[in-house]
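Hi, here's the filled form for the chain we discussed.

Project: internal
Contact: R.S.
Residues: 175
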Amino acid sequence: MIDKLIAKGFRAQLKTGNLLTGQLYVDLANYPDASPEELRTEEGYTVFPTIPAPFEQIVNRVDNILKKVEQVPFDKIGKELQAAVESLTKTLDEIKDMSGNINNETIPKINAALDQMQEAMEGVESTLGPDSALNYNARQVTNELSMAIRSIRSLLEYLERDPQALLLGKEGDKK
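And the returned structure, exactly as it came back:
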C-alpha cells in the first residue's frame, strides 16, 4: 500500500516547527507533481522519498540564477563592440577619402557630415573602449557578483549545517 502512495506522490518534507527553538518536524503529504520515486534500502535502512524543504528550493533557484549571471560574457561583448567601432571608423575614413572626387558644392557638406560622424564614433569608442568607464564598471560588477555568489554559497552551506543560527546566531558568539 505504501508503494502505491509513493507512486502517487506521497513524500516527506522537513519543515520548521518552531522558529525560536529551531525545532523541525517531518511533514508527510501528497505532492502529485513530485517526480516518480520508490521506497529503497541503503545500508540496511529504509529510505523514504522526500522533496526539498522550501528554504532549500529557494537556495536552488538563487544558485541557478547566479550561475546564469556568471555565464554572461561581458568581456567578449566589450571586445566585439570595440571591433565594430574600429571597423566603422575605418569605413568613415575611406568614405572621406573617396569624397574628394565629388563636385565642389557637395564636398564641404559631406565632409562636415563625416566629421560629425567621426566625432560621434570617437565618443562611442571612448564610452565602449577597453579603457572606458563602462567596460571598467562591467568588470567591477562581474567581480562583485562573483564575490557575492561565493558569499551566498558560503552562507547557505553554513545555514544547511546549522539552520538555527538564523535565529540564534553563531555558537561562538554566546558569552
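Let me know if anything looks off before we file it.
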